[in-house]
Amino acid sequence: MKKYYFIILSILATAFFACSNPEADGKKAATAYMDCYEEYVDQTQKAYSDFISEFKQNHFSSRIEAREKLEKLLLNAQQDFDVCRHTAEIEKQKLEQKYLTNYEKAAKFQYAYSAVSNSHKPSNADFQTYQNNVDNLIQNIIPSKPDAEKIKADLVGHKIIEGKDGYRQQGWYWKVADNEIKELKINNIKDNGKDYVLDLHLFLESETSAYETDIIVTYVLRQSDDWTVDFIETKAMSIVKTGKYNNCITSERKQTGYTEYELEFTNHCDVALLVGGTALNAWGDKQWHKFSTVVEGNSKKRIGGLFSVSVLDYNIHFIERP
């Protein structure tokens, strides 16, 4: 019985390989993949065509909304293509396995597959022309002007300097982080069609300090999908005075040379503090100049003196956390 069983299997296997045609299977596998691509081109072109023809009736409120609609249509075409291509790849692997033990037939299969793939002339998929038409339509959508909440979000990550007549040294800035703009007031708006200019008053607050600032924010639209901050100009910026640290700092004017004087600040508290004020220069222009310095907790800090500004007189305007 076993003898006949093996004979039957042998006959079936011989018949299977005899009927197998590596050239036909190679062409079949390649054609399946190419059909997937042709269907992808057709679906993508239809997605663009439908979007363009239905553009007006969709009444898009923003450029972002319009692009999201198009992306969804194109994504459907891409997903269908991915599924089809995966199925075609599995079928190719099944057909290839028939010839794994036969080098000659395996070579014929691959040759036929490559020949069909290389000779295939895909449909003219001029997606860029479609995209250009879409961009032209979308550019006609004018997004709503930024409101207070959008302005707050847009300013996150931007740096606000103290301005020309500030206490802090050159290079200091406040980098706006999430939820640091506690108050925002729009003082004035200028809209010339291309630029949207806002005169703003902000109250900024971090875990340790707070500032009030007047800035001018210029928004532009141009080719962007929404109004975008172009640049920020600082008009004024000042630290919010709490007075809670005033007793932490004592100051003294000390002579360091024949005509040189410096300021020495002593911090009696265990937190770093920013001391700001004005000092009268005994040399040069003999004018009052703003200054600020950070005094570490339980330590001393000196400014002015020999080879620097000689302090003739001074006033302390604030003592706050830096």
Q: Which characteristics define this entry?
A:
elongated, 322 residues, three-stranded antiparallel β-sheet, 30% strand, 12 strands, single chain, alpha+beta, four-stranded antiparallel β-sheet
Description:
By secondary structure, this protein is an alpha+beta fold. The protein is 39% helix and 30% strand. β7 and β8 form a beta hairpin. α2 packs antiparallel against α4 and α2 (22-53) packs parallel to α5 (103-119). The longest helix is centred in the N-terminal third of the chain and has 35 residues, at 63-97. The radius of gyration is 37 Å and the shape is elongated.
Q: CA-to-CA gap between the ends? A: 96 Å
Question: Per DSSP, what share of the residues sits in E-state strands of 2 or more residues?
Answer: 25-35%
Helicity range: 25-40%
**Major sheet size, sense and barrel closure:** 4 strands, antiparallel
- Tell me the strand order in the biggest sheet: 3-4-5-6
Query: Which class best fits the helix and strand makeup?
Result: alpha+beta
- What is the helix tally? 7
> For the residues shown, what is the average pLDDT?
89
Q: Looking at the structure, what is the overall shape?
A: elongated
Report the radius of gyration as a whole number of Å. 37 Å
Low-pLDDT windows of residues? 1-18
Task: Give me the count of strands.
Answer: 12
Order of helices and strands: HHHHHHHEEEEEEEEEEEE
Oligomer: single chain
